[in-house]
Amino acid sequence: MLLRNAIAIELAKSLGLDYTSNYTMVEVYLNGENDGLYMITTPVDVIDENRVDINEESDFLLEVTSNQGKDQANYIMNTNNMLAPFQNLRLVVEDTDKMSGETYSKLNSQYWQIALAIYSGDWEYIQEWVDVDSMAKYYILHEYLKALDYCYDSTRYYFEDGKLHGGPVWDFDYGLGNIEF
Asked: Taking phi first (over 0 means left), then psi (-120 to 50 degrees means alpha), and beta for anything else, what does residue 12 get?
């Protein structure tokens, strides 16, 4: 597990993906006994100038999740059958307690515009709503590392300046062949 996440972070840094976490490996001793080697990373879900530096008033940090929690207010999702690839894709919105109804509606609208842009295949329309460079790098990273969670769970995105960006990089426990069926 340690190598998968470290490799993912190093590759993300080499690709130039913004907000890639720093990490360090530490040996943990508990009651005088070696408990193993652990990886400590900077958290990905913190919005501030030292981590994910986005404007909290207009930008958003999101996570794709397959698990639906109790509080529906912190999800945005598309239930329109017309856009099948995006149907029921749940995005958890960080810090929804700070979000007004108007802001939540704006975020839903942006998500809908992105889905329509991608579905349309109109390159100019896509570029209006998606940071293609970061999304391409993010896709390459996940594909190269065979991340089974990609676009299903533990996948992060952020809106910045009205565009959807790939990242920050997070959770490659189910990558590089680490899965049993």
From this structure: alpha
Average pLDDT, the chain: 80
Question: Residues 6 or more apart from 52 whose CB is under 8 A from it?
Answer: 19, 44, 46, 61, 158, 168
Q: What is the CA radius of gyration of the chain?
A: 17
Task: Spell out the residues 6+ positions from residue 107 whose beta carbon is closer than 8 angstroms to its own.
Answer: 60, 76, 93, 99, 159
CA atoms within 13 A on the CB side of 94: 21
Give residue 149's identity as a one-letter amino acid code: D
> What is the spatial distance between Cα 157 and Cα 19, in angstroms, rounded to a whole number?
11
Could you give the dihedral angle defined by the CA atoms of residues 6, 9, 13 and 17, in that order, rounded to the nearest 10 degrees?
170
Q: What is the DSSP string of 72-140?
A: GGGEE-B--GGGGGGBT-EEEETTGGG--HHHHHHHHHHHHHHHHHHHHT-HHHHHHHB-HHHHHHHHH
3-class SS of residue 2: helix
pTM, full prediction: 0.81
CA-CA distance, 36 to 27, in Å (whole number)? Answer: 6
Average confidence (pLDDT) over 130-149: 90
Query: 3-class SS at 26?
Result: strand
